[in-house]
Design goal:
This protein has two domains: 382 residues, TIM Barrel; 280 residues, no CATH class. The longest helix is centred in the middle third of the chain and has 23 residues. The chain is α/β, with parallel strands linked by helices. Helices cover 38% and strands 14% of the residues. The protein is built from 22 helices and 18 strands. Helix 10 crosses helix 11. Keywords: FAD, Flavoprotein, NADP, Oxidoreductase. InterPro entries: FAD-linked_oxidoreductase-like, Fadh2_euk, Mehydrof_redctse-like, MTHFR_C.
Length: 697
């Protein structure tokens, strides 16, 4: 996939295009009766980006929570990239690479891998780069790293203890070994490196500025700065960079304020100045961490708005970084400290989440929700069952117009042309990616022969396989401490649909926006024993930029067949069979854990397109399909989840154990497709299911 520098340039071109369009339409604004209510003055203009930094936790519990958090933030907030830090002298090598690989492969977000050269030989650096490349990582933040003498800071003349003494040597080595394959970022220090001298005004010395330019001349592509709180110092830093010929993107680092004491500690350690105006606002509430966080978010949002406003390019043409002297800043890098709440609030305040009101955004969290440090032994409080996930799924509807496909495309190079997937893994995409990871090529344009590619086995030892639902105690809290009858299990599925249970084994994410539209009906069906794991309503030619159903960009029309997938008892399977028989437009596939199949209304044939789109100057796209053979592969996995994720919570021979085992061994997994997507009678399949459900109550 594109290097970060290429993505940054694309965002800048978008910003310039938006600015040009706004300028050309400004003369007609009076004629269209635009009022101040139409555009929020707090929202910044489109065409800017943001990214997040995470660090490797020290514990397995912390690692599980962090992987979940990266998945969620990547899905909900859609950052341009995430960066993963590097421990002193490579102490976190294995964890850093594992997190980077997971984010790139399974969270489908581009990764900027920190790499410090301190203490590393050329051979070790080459090996690390090859490991990063094999994981799909295409971006490196080249750093010198922590000092070789841990009890004192870097001093002039110190060397790294490895084959690369400075970050510039690391940049040169990366370019020598891999050419332009990797995008390379380097660090910038608006107030000077902590170990270097500052100018009288507290800014970076000319010598340090020249060192930065040398790193860029050696092959680096962009700069990410140390965090700061004095915007004037940062703006002056950008001007000085441009003045000495540094023309690359400069991304300001933003660290949300978590507490008054941590602010003083961090700024003192890093030699960062804090304006009196900032301290005065925080001083009054310094003993109230929640109030400090709230004001800290306001301060960060104000900083971002000012930087974007005061560095906006006045040029109406695209800027070529290789020849321009543009001082614009087009994005921000958030030092999250592995936390989510403050960063989300800031982005919501800036209008980046496309929400109608603060209360519907993930940033507007319930005030009694606390945010715990991921690196601790305790489970992070944001993982506890709340209604917030349901609110966040609403806000996702407004962002769906930016979707390239109905599902999130991979960021791996070998999957760059993949544009067709079976619907069955829609709610377990990481499983699908892993099981198809060894394919030589991926479906492009059409699904093709389903018997050709073999699905890999899903190992119980795969790290991502179980982390989503947390430890056993977390799973019991969600799935039930002691279910005694089938209605107890039905209630878990219904509560997932309603948003009070954040996950179930078959669904790693909250309810999809399009399913949220029929949430009450789905909850009713689950309480009647139709245990849903996948569904989509019919769509007949919705605009491709529709806020809920749209994908593929503007100018097209999208369609989808109604689809419903659920676990049901043998008795209800018979009732569904009768229902499908009465509706010629419907077909049904069913299979139980023993492999006994049942097909109703199915003619000889195979793959059915469930989602397709019609766009100008393009062939018809069919990104989501149903394949009977793939369904059987998925069914085997789906039934195994009853055992590995639910049955295993209870003692052998207990009532709860026997209940889950009985349901696993007797229930059918049923998939129903309604080919009538064009009637005006609504969701015919849903209406028919509700009729069946009514008989179950």
């Amino acid at each position: 996939m594109p290097r970060i520098i290429d993505k940054i340039r694309a965002v800048q071109y978008e910003r310039i295009a938006v600015s040009s369009q706004s300028s050309s339409s400004s003369s007609s604004s009076a004629a269209t009766n635009t009022t101040s209510e139409d555009v929020s003055s707090d929202d910044v203009q489109p065409g800017w980006h943001y990214s997040f930094e995470f660090f490797p936790p020290k514990t397995e519990a912390g690692l599980d929570n962090l992987l979940t958090r990266i998945d969620r933030m990547s899905r909900r907030l859609n950052p341009l990239f995430v960066s993963i830090t590097w421990g002193a002298n490579g102490s976190t090598l294995s964890r850093t690479l594992a997190i980077a690989s997971h984010a790139q492969r399974f969270a489908c977000v581009d990764v900027l891998l920190h790499l410090s050269c301190t203490g590393l030989t050329r051979e070790q650096i080459a090996q690390i780069l090859n490991m990063a490349k094999s994981s799909g990582v295409r971006n490196i933040l080249a750093l010198r790293g922590d000092p070789p003498h841990p009890k004192r800071a870097w001093k002039e003349g110190d060397v790294s203890g490895g084959d690369c003494d400075r970050a510039i040597d690391l940049v040169k080595l990366i370019r020598k070994l891999h050419g332009d394959y990797f995008g390379i970022g380097v660090a910038g220090h608006p107030e000077g490196h902590p170990s270097s001298l500052k100018c009288d005004d507290g800014t970076t010395t000319s010598l340090e500025m020249q060192h930065l330019k040398d790193k860029l001349d050696a092959g680096a592509d962009f700069v990410i700065t140390q965090f700061f709180y004095d915007v004037d110092i940062f703006l002056e830093y950008v001007k000085r960079c441009r003045g000495i010929g540094i023309k690359c993107p400069i991304i300001p680092g933003i660290m949300p304020i978590q507490s008054y004491s941590s602010l003083l500690k961090m700024t003192s350690f890093c030699n960062i100045s804090v304006p009196s105006s900032v301290l005065d606002r925080l001083e009054r509430v310094r003993l109230d961490d929640e109030a400090v966080k709230k004001i800290g978010c306001e301060i960060a949002a104000e900083m971002c708005r000012r930087i974007l406003a005061e560095t906006s390019s006045t040029s109406s043409s695209a800027v070529d970084y290789s020849i321009g002297d543009d001082c614009s800043v087009h994005g921000f890098h958030f030092y999250t400290l592995n936390l989510e709440r403050s960063t989300t609030r800031i982005l919501a305040s800036l209008g980046a989440l496309d929400i109608d009101s603060p209360t519907s955004a993930g940033a507007a969290l319930q005030e009694n929700d606390t945010d715990a440090t991921i690196g601790s032994e305790t489970n992070d409080q944001d993982q506890i069952v709340t209604r917030r996930e349901r609110k966040e799924s609403i806000s996702e509807k407004a962002r769906s117009t930016k979707r390239v496909l109905p599902w999130k495309p991979s960021t791996m190079d070998n999957r760059s042309k993949e544009d067709v997937r079976p619907i069955n893994w829609s709610n377990r995409p990481k499983s699908y990616v892993m099981r198809t990871d060894d394919w030589d090529e991926f479906p492009n344009g059409r699904w093709g022969d389903s018997t050709s590619p073999a699905f890999g086995e899903l190992s119980d030892l795969s790290h991502f396989y179980s982390f989503t639902l947390g430890c056993d105690d977390d799973r019991r809290a969600m799935l039930g401490h002691c279910p005694l009858n089938e209605s107890d299990v039905y209630e878990v599925f219904a509560r997932y649909v309603e948003g009070t249970v954040p996950h179930i084994p078959w669904c790693e994410t909250p309810l999809q926006p399009e399913s949220f539209l029929i949430q009450p009906q789905l909850a009713k069906l689950n309480r009647c024993g139709l245990l849903t794991v996948n569904s989509q309503p019919p769509v007949d030619g919705a605009p491709s930029n529709h806020p809920t159903f749209g994908w593929g960009g503007k100018g097209g029309r999208v369609y989808q067949r109604g689809y419903f997938e659920c676990f049901v008892s043998p008795d209800k399977t018979n009732r569904l069979t009768s229902m499908v028989t009465k509706h010629p437009s419907m077909i049904m596939y069913a299979v139980n854990n023993a492999g006994q199949e049942l097909r109703v209304g199915v003619e000889e044939g195979g793959v059915t397109a469930l989602t397709w789109g019609v766009f100008p100057n393009r062939e018809i796209l069919q990104p989501t399909i149903f394949d009977p053979d793939a369904f059987l592969v998925w069914a085997e996995e789906a039934f195994s989840l009853w055992s590995t994720m639910w049955l295993s919570l209870y003692d052998f021979g207990s009532e709860s154990y026997e209940l889950i085992e009985k349901m696993k061994d007797t229930y059918y997994l049923v998939a129903i497709i309604d080919n009538d997507y064009y009637t005006n009678d609504g969701f015919l399949l849903l209406d028919a299911l509700l009729e069946v459900g009514g008989k179950c109550s």
